[in-house]
Design a protein that fits this description.
By secondary structure, the protein is α+β, with helices and mostly antiparallel strands.
């Protein structure tokens, strides 16, 4: 399949939070595969961003609630013919395992890192532009200069409290994204609008474009409808303009 660009718009705050955490998990997992001290620093920054997000609400409870909701819905599909029952049962089983692992976590996720002296020192210095020079936090500079194998061991230890949440959110978003097939649509004069069925709960809008496209979508969504304006590439220093041509794209309104 040719490469595609996918733009997503969450339609409630829980999905927005899950997408932000997915982004941070991916960022961490990307940077730990590279050996430079700059990548290690970026992985540490991702861990601190995850901790910051987790401090803003009871994300463990929200994740459990969404997994339970999805699990109940998927179990109702078991008797439906002409679906991939093997894949469905595998997902249901994975959800149950994630739920048990989340319930087994005592307290809030990552609470053991909240009082970590070095991580807190790094967090404080990050608020200052250029605040992590070698002379600001010598202990951190020393650690960054350790062999990659030693750094990766520490990073994996710091990330371990998030491993179950990482798996759970990946599973939640996979189920949502796979819930609806993408359909072909046309945005006339670069504009598209669609009403949302009030009897169904749309969780996520996905706009899919060819990888070599010269436009990108600006999605605005409310309870009853959403609009998409396709903007064209231009001078990055100025507000992009709407493309006035007809734009072919694929659309998924993920309902579960």
């Amino acid at each position: 399949m040719p490469k595609q660009l996918i733009f997503e718009q969450p339609l409630n705050e829980h999905i927005r939070t899950f997408l932000r955490l997915e982004h941070l998990f991916r960022r961490f997992n990307q940077h730990i595969t590279h050996k430079s001290e700059w990548d290690t620093h970026s992985a540490v920054k991702a861990i601190l961003d995850i901790l910051s997000m987790l401090s803003r609400g009871d994300i463990k409870r929200e994740t459990i609630k969404e997994l339970e909701r999805q699990n109940i819905n998927l179990q109702s599909f078991v008797e439906i013919p002409d679906i991939n029952h093997g894949k469905l049962l595998d997902i249901i089983s994975e959800q149950k395992i994630c739920l048990q692992e989340l319930h087994n976590i005592g307290g809030s996720i990552g609470h053991e890192l909240q009082q970590h002296e070095l991580l807190n020192a790094i967090r404080q210095r990050l608020s200052m532009p250029g605040g992590l020079c070698e002379f600001d936090l010598p202990v951190y500079a020393h650690w960054l200069n350790q062999p990659y194998e030693k750094r990766i061991e520490t990073l994996e230890e710091w990330f371990q409290p998030f491993a179950t949440l990482n798996k759970a959110i990946d599973l939640i978003l996979q189920v949502i994204r796979d819930s609806t097939d993408a359909i072909d649509e046309i945005a006339e004069d670069g504009f598209y609008q669609k009403n949302l069925d009030s009897n169904l709960t749309c969780l996520l809008i996905r706009v899919i474009l060819p990888h070599d496209t010269t436009v990108f979508p600006e999605i605005s969504a409310g309870k009853h409808r959403f609009t998409i304006r396709f903007l064209k590439e231009g001078n990055m220093a100025h507000r992009p303009e709407q493309d006035k041509s007809n734009i072919d794209f694929k659309l998924s309104c993920c309902i579960l």
